[in-house]
Amino acid sequence: MTTDPIDRQNVRPRFWETYRLEDLPRNEWEALCDGCGKCCLLKLEDEDTGQVAYTSISCRLLDPDTCRCGNYALRKQLVAGCVIVTPETLETIVDWMPRSCAYRLLAEGETLPDWHPLISGTTDSVHKAGVSFAGTMTPEYEVEEDDLEDYIVEGML
Ligand code: SF4
Ligand code: SF4
Questions:
Q1: What lines the ligand 1 site, CB under 6 Å?
Q2: Which of 20, 23, 82, 135 is deepest in the core (most CB within 10 A)?
Q3: How sure is the predictor about 9, in pLDDT bands with cuts at 50, 70 and 90?
């Protein structure tokens, strides 16, 4: 979920500390996305355990350098497997969202880290903190389906 551009100017000061996720207006909800792009990495699910493993392969619509979706407005139409993060879907996906994801952090009672753009004031802080995979992802169209497992990232992101 990497909207572009993310408007972080017209939001209430530290709104995430005061209001519930489900009560946020759309612009504040969108502003919570730190733009890491990690949820846009391809994932593999173990058929037996249901465990989700992340790969370092980026969705074909993701810019692997900027971590921005190439067509945010039409993402679900263009990529059937794209997960739309909303207050309604969050509960069912939160367990496999990246641990650094703002939606997961807040849903689990944590607060935002200092590198989050809403606090740092710049999207670069996400990349400088090493939170995103910018510049290290392999685009989906460069990988054969049979080779997906070779790209599994060990551990939770
Ligand atoms: S993992 Fe969370 S913060 Fe990062 S791009 Fe996805 S929705 Fe945004
Ligand atoms: S279409 Fe791909 S790049 Fe765009 S938000 Fe969905 S998973 Fe991310």
A1: 1-2, 33-39, 85, 97-98, 101-103
A2: 82
A3: confident
The tokens describing 85, both together, are: 């993060």
Contact indicator for 125, 116 with CB cutoff of 8 Å: yes
User: Three-state SS for 21?
Assistant: helix
How many whole angstroms separate alpha carbon 23 and alpha carbon 39?
23
Rounded Cα distance, 33 and 42, in Å: 18
- Given a cut of 80, whether residue 6 has pLDDT beyond it is no
Note the pTM of the prediction, 2 decimals: 0.93
Can you tell me whether residue 149 is helix, strand or coil?
A: helix
Ligand nearest to the CA of 100: 1
Going by alpha carbons, the residue nearest to atom 4 of ligand 2 is 69
Enumerate the domain spans of the chain.
Answer: 15-151
